[in-house]
Amino acid sequence: MSCAKPTPPADPRHERNVLDIAKTIRVYFNPEYKDMRTMIVVESPMDALKLLEAGVTVDEVNVGGVTFKPGMTLITEAVSSATNTSKHTKPSTI
């Protein structure tokens, strides 16, 4: 019998919200939140692309750990992309 370790509670000093892409874009452009520092986590590189195409500006995008599956293009050993999205990606130079 094995037991999973309980997940530690999130740091109470930092507020967390789970939003869909459309609401993320609305909140991003809401002047009430213009000085808020944020970290956005998305489910896929295509979600990140939707945010960027909507005008959301970011300093850095980390797409590590996208699991390779049949029908995908392997970009690096740690990142793969759906075939229809590879036009938006380029191999890493690292």
In brief:
It is built from two helices and two strands; from the N terminus they run ααββ.
Describe the model.
It is built from 2 helices and 2 strands; from the N terminus they run ααββ. A two-stranded antiparallel ribbon has the order 1-2. It is globular, with a radius of gyration of 17 Å. The model has no long low-confidence stretch (mean pLDDT about 75). By secondary structure, it is an alpha+beta fold. The chain is about 20% helix and about 10% strand. It starts with 20 loop residues before the first helix and ends in a 12-residue tail after the last strand. The longest helix is centred in the middle third of the chain and has 9 residues, at about 45-55.
Mind describing the biggest β-sheet?
Answer: 2 strands, antiparallel
The largest sheet has its strands arranged as 1-2
What is the tally of beta strands? Answer: 2
The whole-number mean of residue pLDDT values reads 77
Query: How far do the termini sit from each other?
Result: 42 Å
| Rg (C-alpha, Å) | 17 Å
Structural shape? globular
- The tally of helices reads 2
- Can you write the helix and strand succession as a string? HHEE
Contiguous uncertain segments of 5+ residues:
none
Strand content: 5-15%
The percentage helix is 10-25%
